[in-house]
C-alpha cells in the first residue's frame, strides 16, 4: 500500500492552472493542517509532558531528523536561547548531514543508519534524556536506527510522523502521528507535512518553556537583550512589573542585571 505522504495529489494538470487557482488550492490544503493537529492533541500533550519531566529532572531534549522536518527543528531550537534565555545544550537537534550543512539539503544523508546515533553518543546521550524523531514518512533510516538504539538503552523516545502505524512510531514511547493527507505536489512533504511540523515545533517548545518557568504571565522575562527592539521591550516590561516610572532608571537596572527576571528578583526582593 502506498504511504499517504506518497499518494497522488488531489489536483492535477497544475501547469494549466492560473495563479489564482493555484493559491486557492494550496490554501485549501493548508487549512486542513490545524484541524488534523487538533485531533492528535492528546498525543502531543503526552509528548510535551514527557519532555517537561525530563528537563525538570536535569535531562535534555534532542530532535533527531533529516530533510525538511529536520531543518525546521533546527530553526526552532536555535531560537530558544535568545527568546527564553535557555542555556545551550538543553534543547538540541541532531540533523542528518550536520547543522553546519543546514543550507546544503543533504537529502542522501537520511539513509545513513549510523550518523544519528553516533552524534547522540558524542553528545553523551543517556537515560535522563529524551529523543524525538522527525520523519514525514515514518521510515527514514537515519531516524529509525537512532530510535532503535535509544530504546535498547532505555532512553525515552518520541516522534512526529505523517503516516499511521510507521516503523518509527513503533520505536517511540510517545508517538505523534499527524496525518495531513496527500500533498498538493505529489510527495512534496515540505508542504502540508512541513506546515504541520512547524506548527508542532512551535506548540511543543513554547509549552515546554512555559512549564519549566521561562515565562511569567505572558512575558519573555528571560529574553536576551540582543538588540534595541528587545531592550526596549524589556525596559517597558520591567517598568510595568516593578512599577518603575522612569524609563531611564528601568533601563539602567535592566542593563545591570541582564534579564527582566534577574532585575525583578533584585528590585522586588521576590525570593526574600
TrEMBL record:
Keywords: Carbohydrate metabolism, Lyase. One of its GO terms (molecular function) is ether hydrolase activity. Residues 51-214 form the SIS domain. InterPro entries: Etherase_MurQ, MURQ/GCKR, SIS_dom, SIS_dom_sf. One of its GO terms (biological process) is amino sugar catabolic process. NCBIfam families: PRK05441.1 (NF003915). This is N-acetylmuramic acid 6-phosphate etherase.
